[in-house]
Here is the input.
Amino acid sequence: MNRVFLRQLSSLAQPLAKAGQGKYLVPNTPRYKKLMEKQAIFTRDDGLLVWQKLSTDKATYATVVALVTVGVLWSAYCLAKFASPPKNQ
Here is the structure.
């Protein structure tokens, strides 16, 4: 009795799908096709890093690097300004 119960809980209790037959329907919409094209671009073995694959990723990366540089320089300026004593007039 226990063995039958455990077998029903097993992931292999139901037979696996045959080769070539999917268990779920695959969408056939333009959005899904576009997603699959992007996935093919990102999984292509062309020696590029992920952030180098698309031109929009390159622009985003350059913007983030520029903003981080500005933030670090601004922080250094503020720390230097706060660390120096005020001038007497």
Notes: The mean pLDDT is 83. DSSP finds three helices and no strands in the chain. The radius of gyration is 28 Å. Helices lie at 2-9, 30-43, 55-83.
